[in-house]
Amino acid sequence: MTRKFDAFVLFAEMRTGSNYLEDSLNNFPDINCLGEVYNPTFLGHHNTFEMYGYDMDKREQDPLGLLEAIIENADGGIPGFRLFHDHDDRVVERVLPDPRIAKVILTRNPLDSYVSRKIASATGQWRLTDMKHAKTAKIRFDTPEFGELLDALLPFQERLRQGLQKTGQVAFQVRYEDINDPEMLNGLAAFLGSDERVDATSKKLKKQNPAPLRDKVENYDEMVSALSDLDRFGLDRSPELEPERAAQVPNFVAHPTLGLLFCPIKGAPENSVLNWMGELGSVGKDALIRKMSQKKLRQWMKDNTGFRSFTVLRHPVARAYCVFNRFILPDDRPAYADPRKTLRQRYKVPMPNKAPGPDWSEAEQKAAFQGFIGFLKGNLAGQTSVRVDQAWATQTAILQGISSVMVPQAVIHEEQMKEALPALARQVGVEDVPEVVGEAMPGAHTLKSVYDGKIEQALIDTYRRDYIGFGFPRWNKRPG
Questions:
Q1: What 3-state DSSP class applies to 226?
Q2: How far is it, in rounded angstroms, from Cα 346 to Cα 41?
Q3: Counting C-beta atoms within 10 Å of the first and last residue's C-beta, which end of the chain has fewer, N or C?
Q4: Is 3 helix (H, G, I), strand (E, B) or coil?
């Protein structure tokens, strides 16, 4: 019998019940869900690193070859796998327009997923097979962290929706609340082309943390207040095409009494600007307005007619070196633990498992930085499984994202800060303007000690948009 589909993809996210749904699907003799085949840190399931002759390195080099191997080894049934927003984007590009690949979309209230993930991180318990082993914890809701989660998930969901519409496909939609319903499960199996039916869903896994949110979140009232400012229905969204990067409004910083609004770029000067803003009017750095929603940002702009908004750029060489020393070389950045591991294991960036010690030499620093630069070019070109992070995305793309909410009135190069920032302050009525102190570069070794022409040329190839669009000269020819 001809199969209805060659394979299926279960689009889901962490803590949406995808493990449970996979276990239930695998109770059908002619359905084989293979796990997170394109997870950056394993292949299919935890501590598994090989499948159909593909190890992690071969998968990185030829992800679509692995997809073909999965289809070819189906043995009469329908194979499938789970795919999350931060898995290999090359695979999303391949499967989304293909009508021979069935799409199953599993969704859960992102707040519930967020709280569940925080509890799992706190307890170390990601799967539960027996209630007597259940662990629980109360977590603190972090508004910017949750905002970043939505900034990652919602554009991906919109991408799936548009991709299916444009190719005339229909996905099987599953809500978290329905995954324990055998009738839904049998309907999904029929959609995939299975003739088998089951009487019950998986009994292996048990639901974790079934208590109401109030019992799981320490700062519940604060969370409710913060969520009231979230635009869940997209009422503030521009009808025009959105840039690929979100605006990251919670990262904007406003002065409480003066009309100055700073839009930071990750990896560019930030602390020095915030220190300077805190000195204006002697309000102090802690009094600056942060973590604004779009609603509060609009209100601040209405209340500060004549305000000046600005951002500060950093030379691509200096920014790449700053990002490498701040986020990649140390081992104390949880958000970068997986990319760091992938850089070491898959891209052979020569850095130790832990943060380098005091005997880390200049030559070792240079070799590791060069390895990171080599990774960047492929990453920004969409040729790796690692996400294009805000820390090393082009400054052009980040500014395009900011401009979807508000176009910064001043785009200042780092070398211009000492003159340009005081000029902005005087434009909003400040007479006694403090001096701007430059920002020190992190790292045990100076950029000058590792810089050479090959490093510059590699970064010109990687950040060509920034070099051309912002007129950056070579780093060793820059003014000042």
A1: helix
A2: 10
A3: N
A4: coil
